[in-house]
Structures are given as C-alpha cells and as structure tokens.
Amino acid sequence: MNRAEIRRVAIVGAGSIGVAFAVVFARAGWPVRLFDPDASRRDAAPGEIAQRLTELARFGLLDETAEAAAARVRIAASVEAAVADADLVQECAPERVDIKRALFAQFDAAAPATAIFASGSSALTASSFVDDLPGRHRCLIAHPGNPPYLIPVIEIVPAPFTAPEVTERTLQLFRDAGLQPVLVSKEVEGFVFNRLQGAVLREAYCLVRDGVATVEDIDTVMRDGLGLRWSVIGPFETVDLNTRGGISSHAQKMGPAYERMGAERGQHDPWTPELVETVAAARRAALPLEQWEERVAWRDRALMALARHGRVVASRKES
C-alpha cells in the first residue's frame, strides 16, 4: 500500500461498514476519526476494529501489528470534530435521503474546503440528497464491497455536478488505500455491484417460487459453480473462455436462449449485433484469439489452486 502521502479520514457512522472502512484506512497508515451519534456504537467500535485487525494479522494480511494499526483510529465526539481536518469524509449512515442530506450539510459547513465527501450508499445516488448543497461539486458515492478490507472493489459514482478533479482525486485516494476503485460513468440506482447482485437474487427468488430448486441447492450452484468461476474471472471472460471462437461465438450460440429466459421474466433485452460487437471488441483487446488456449489453461490452473485450497481447509475442519 502506498503510504507516501498520509491522508486524514473522517468516517461518520460506526456500524459494520463504518468499522470496516476504519480498518481499511488504518491499515493504509492514515489517521482516522470515527463518529456515530449513538454512544453505544462509539463505545463498541474500538473493540470491533481491534478484533478485525487482529484477525487480519493472524492471516498475514497486515504489514505491522494490529495494535499499531488500531492506534490510528480515534473516536470523535461530534461530526464537526471528526471532519475538521479531513481530506476525505466517508459517510456510512442509514440508506435514507433525509439523514444523508442533513449530514452532508454538516460536512459542507465544517470540513476543509478541499475535503471530498463520499457516501457509502448502496443504491441512492448523490443527486438524490446533495442536489442543492453549496459544495455539491465535491460529493460523490464510494460504495464498497462488504467487508472492504477483504473485498477490495469500490464503486466511485460521481453525480453530473461532481467536479472531474474530485472524481480523479477520489479514485487515486482509494487506490492508495489499497482498494480497487471502479468508475461508474452514469448515476443509476444500485450502481453496478447491486444491479448484478440483484439480477442473480431476482432469478434465485423466482426459481424457489416456481419450485425449480431449493434455497440450499441454489446456494450450492452459486458457491460451487458460478461463484467459484467468478472468483477467478468475470462473467464476460467466463463465456469468452467457455466457447471456442470467443464471446462472439458464445453470443451466436447462446444469445437466443438467454433472450427467451429474459422474456419469460418479462425482460426483453436481446443482445443486439452492435452490443455484442462492442463487448467482443473489448474482450479481443484484452485477449487476442491466438492467446485463447493459453488463457484457458491459466483459468484451469487458477481453479486447481482454489480446489487445492479447499481440500486444505476441509482437512483442517476434519482434524
């Protein structure tokens, strides 16, 4: 992790995501000020942070002692005290427009003029709660995977009024913190993470409702099937490598079936030739077809490594 430039971070909200963000930034070497309006959460957060850092150290995922990292986190007595000298203010409040609107007004009044205001919102867009804020140009979404100290992807979602310079600074800041930021180019409810997750969940619920499979069996298909593959490569690369000739060949062979499946659920989004061409061009830029065999072999080795790890875990459980 890049510690060449120390940043000061304020986190407002000490629930599970706020605590997890505190772990991320403390591990990156940055001073953290954490505030929650609930005194019981302020009291509990230090112990929870220490416990998570201790577990990371136990698995060799810290470059220092858990105590050294935990010492960077301080509990603030108010929003104003938390944000007073912050470079980044990370909001982790409940998913309610009224709460976020009030908090961002406090941030705008109390934080330095150069501070970035990021919301950990899971679905609400920045435009829905900072549209009339004087400092709205420095507001955006930074939505993490949960927990972010183990799942590094974080979605950066600027509003139409977010200053481009703020977006770029935010992307770099999270890279420096050891995360993998993804720029979401348009404001859409749920962003990318929860739209993909939601598509799977909607179909999973339907399959249970329709008596096609049990809850347990659907979890098995995801955990030991799709999820296993997707832990190595994403859905586009998966089908690209599953079909000789790549993703264009897959779309030609399977596109009509997927279109019928979508229509069955009332969704008509066929893969048009133009859309397939766009996706195929991106895949071929990433992987020329002459390297396809080599990449398939790499995928198989990666899955073998996962299988070996699974055997090791299973044997430890039995011993």
From TrEMBL:
PROSITE patterns: 3HCDH (PS00067). Belongs to the 3-hydroxyacyl-CoA dehydrogenase family. The keyword Oxidoreductase applies. The keyword Oxidoreductase applies. Transmembrane segments: none annotated. Residues 190-278 form the 3-hydroxyacyl-CoA dehydrogenase C-terminal domain. InterPro entries: 3-OHacyl-CoA_DH_CS, 3-OHacyl-CoA_DH_NAD-bd, 3HC_DH_C, 6-PGluconate_DH-like_C_sf, 6PGD_dom2, NAD(P)-bd_dom_sf. This is L-gulonate 3-dehydrogenase. Its EC number is 1.1.1.45. It comes from the Bacteria. One of its GO terms (molecular function) is L-gulonate 3-dehydrogenase activity. Keywords: Oxidoreductase. Residues 9-187 form the 3-hydroxyacyl-CoA dehydrogenase NAD binding domain. Pfam families: 3HCDH, 3HCDH_N. It is an enzyme of class 1 (oxidoreductase).
